[in-house]
Amino acid sequence: MADTTAPVLVPTPPRPASVPEQEWAENLSEPANYGGEGPDRSREQAAPGGPESEALYRFREILLDTGDLEWADKTLAGLSHKALWRDEESGASISLVRFAKGSGIPSRHSHASNQFMFCLKGRYTYEPTGLTLTEGSFYWNPKGSLHGPTVAEEESILLEVYDGPHYPTQPDWYSSPDDTR
Hints:
By secondary structure, the chain is mostly beta strands. The chain is built from 2 helices and 10 strands.
């Protein structure tokens, strides 16, 4: 029976005329265990290794049109995301997150790594400090710093980056451990 959970490998794309043949053949990433929509669509070669001998994958440059991706709802009402990239070994990730107007994170919390957010749209406020992300603003929440709760004063879309795992333990506002990734 075929393994339907294994990622699908994409065919090697055609070599551009401006790139020498040997460079094209060798221009692949080191084997890595990446997740998210970009890597899910871009695994070109399998390589041995990884935890418990899981296959790792090699990639070329990856371009992802985020408009082609569907928003995936999280178990917290009003929150959805598009997972762009994740290092499955370190927990580091990049996602687009969307908060519906009036939604937000309901309580104070901290993260197990640094959290970075760039506001693409909306007004997203951290209570009780009143710090508000608006279009074009950049927010950095250092590892372990308590913050929140939050509220989206209008629909807000943020580019969110973590340099490691999101939470030290699963927050009580999520009913699925997948939401903490």
